[in-house]
Write a structure and sequence with these properties.
Radius of gyration: 21 Å
Largest sheet: 9 strands, mixed
Shape: globular
Bound molecules: nicotinamide-adenine-dinucleotide
Helix content: 25-40%
């Protein structure tokens, strides 16, 4: 694994847990973690459960006893690490968004296709697909329970940079993050809604805004709970969007709205999706991730209404291995489910999803949003790809 902070900890928890929960055709061994700071990576290896540590990620790629490279770094290093790992025949799990630019994502998808011919598999970490209520939503849509899909309403709301004194961490720098709220959290709702509906975004009209244009430099370029460097008076420019809002058309005929912001005061990690079809609707909120609201318009009129499904039954996706009904699960389980599916796919020689090609398609949507916003919200088609949203 490369990177050992937020996602590094979440992925480590999942790698540690997955074989204890699920019966799988292969076992994960946590061999080597890479970081840049020798002291911190040693401490992280010990705390997170890795056998060895290194300050050079190239060691992971070179080691013959390593089969899988898990990339948990900011987007500016995804392409370089993934391309090297794929060229060395490693299976690759790469955090989202796949890359910082379409050009990088295209190169990664092409490399993944070549590596696949040699047996190396790859996957992008859109983990919210593996929240059981989200997977159930997809099943309901696929089973026709919602009929023809007309509306997709998605928002991902956070508030961790409302304070203008919050420092200029890597997520606020285009050179490191590619984009702001758009790529960081907007990418999740783009992937999730396309996954759930089986439809792809064909065009967008967007607005973006950077509300706070200058911020204090951080004590160190760390994650969501960073501190400003009190000793230094220096500030730097915010070079990404703070918020992105767009309308879209999907290829199945539905209309969609998307909102991604880190300025929704009071909203911590509110990923919300509502889908309306001719026969019913579903609604999901990540802050209540064990629940799915379902409206079945085929029921007798007198009995109609949104019902709250507590998605904890053994027959619900992923849940047979966890707790008795009603004993809820949390955020970290989506990563365990991701590792379960990844290990199973790799060990049985099938392609895990979402593929790099699917993640490239998300990148093309992000790019269309940026281009639309730059041109006064003018309608912008998403460049088509050959990638299909996997069944
Ligand atoms: N799936 C999700 O829900 C989710 C959530 C948060 C972040 N992410 C994604 O995960 C990735 C990492 O985000 P994070 O929140 O963990 O960031 P973070 O700042 O918490 O951690 C980044 C880690 O990468 C290391 N790093 C940075 N550049 C490096 C380099 N060149 N070589 C080696 N190590 C390097 C840092 O030292 C740190 O350990 C990003 O792509 C982000 O978009 C995904």
């Amino acid at each position: 694994m490369v990177g050992y902070a937020f996602m590094g900890a979440a992925h480590s928890q999942a790698w540690r847990t997955v074989n204890r929960v699920y019966d799988l055709p292969a076992r994960a061994r946590m061999v080597l973690v890479a970081g840049r700071d020798p002291g911190k990576v040693a401490e992280a290896a010990d705390r997170l459960g890795w056998e060895e540590h290194t300050t050079d990620w190239r060691e992971l790629v070179a080691r013959p006893d390593i089969d899988v490279v898990d990339i948990c770094t900011p987007g500016d290093s995804h392409a370089e690490i993934a391309l090297a790992a794929l060229a060395a025949g490693k299976h690759v799990l790469c955090e989202k968004p796949l890359a910082n630019t379409v050009a990088e994502a295209r190169e990664m998808a092409a490399a993944a296709a070549v590596a696949r011919a040699g047996g190396a598999r790859s996957m992008c970490g859109f983990n919210y697909r593996r929240v059981p209520a989200v997977t159930l939503m997809r099943q309901l849509v696929a089973d026709g329970r919602l009929g023809e899909i007309r509306h997709v309403r998605a928002s991902y709301l956070q508030d961790w940079i409302v304070d203008p004194q919050f420092p200029l961490v890597w997520r606020l720098r285009k050179d490191l993050a590619g984009s702001g709220a758009l790529g960081d959290i907007g990418a999740h709702i783009i992937d999730l809604t396309q996954y759930v509906t089986g439809q792809r975004i064909t065009g967008v009209s967007a607005v973006t805004e950077t509300f706070v244009k200058e911020r204090p430099l951080p004590a160190e370029s760390s994650g969501l709970a960073a501190q400003a460097d009190g000793a230094a008076a220096a500030t730097g420019p915010v070079t990404v969007d703070d918020a992105a809002v767009f309308v879209a058309r999907l290829d199945g005929g539905s209309l969609a709205t998307y909102e991604a912001t880190r300025f929704a005061t009071g909203r911590k990690n509110a990923l919300r999706v509502e889908i309306n079809g001719s026969l019913g609707s579903v609604a999901f909120d990540l802050e209540r991730l064990n629940e799915l609201e379902f409206y079945d318009a085929t029921r007798p009129t007198a009995e109609q209404g949104f019902s709250r499904i507590l998605v904890t039954e053994g027959e619900h996706p992923y849940l047979s291995a966890w707790w008795p009904p009603g004993h809820i699960i949390g955020y970290e389980h989506s990563f365990t489910h991701q590792m379960r599916d990844f290990i199973e796919a790799v060990a049985t020689g099938v392609d895990p999803t979402p593929s790099f090609a699917e993640a490239l398609q998300v990148q093309l949507v992000l790019d269309a949003v940026v281009r639309s916003a730059e041109r006064g919200s003018s309608w912008t088609d998403v460049e088509p790809t050959l990638a299909t949203v996997a069944a």
